[in-house]
Amino acid sequence: MTSYGQFCPVAKAMEVLDERWTILIVREMLLGSRHYNDLRRGVPRMSPALLSKRLRSLERVGVVRRDVTAGRTFYTLTRAGEELRPLVESLSAWGMRWIGELGDQDLDAHLLLWDMQRTMPLAEWPRQRTTLEMHLVDPAGVSTHWWIVASGDRFETCDFDPGYEVTASLSGSLRTLVRVWRGEVSWDAALASGELLAAGVARQHVPRWIGTSVFALAPAQ
Which of 10, 58, 129, 191 is 20 to 30 A away from residue 140, measured at CA? Predict the structure, then answer.
């Protein structure tokens, strides 16, 4: 951890927070990730060695607490870590307002489905097993298939056919779905324009089933 050599509290805070990936690890934990593999899914381009190093650093300064239960390690934010929530939310709002351009390299279907899985409103889904098939086309024109399966009180996302009867399907460009998830385009607008195509009960229910990101675009001020 590099020191700025300043007594300013902003400088002292940034000695902890401005190392690469650190704030994104905090973001993942604020969104509910507790286990190492869950954190890895949220920062897929971060090396395992660097993630471990950053977690140790955050533990050392009192932002993260590491515990072991039944032989399994999990991480939680301390009070100091939880107090970063308004900062992360403000960074999200600022990024949406002022850094809105998405490059092709920013569009990651695995990350999108992981983000959806952990925040989708389970109460909006039918109680019986429900399967949503998604056909997405990435910026390179490559088509991928994904399945979201809701059953009881849990979700599962798959990049292979789970073999269940499909309840509804959704297709379109990965970029469009990311923009809807970010709140830049509404579900209604994307479906009405044909940028996203829905079959079965999808058009009626999918906007409620999936919703938008907890960091979706904030109203302009």
Answer: 191
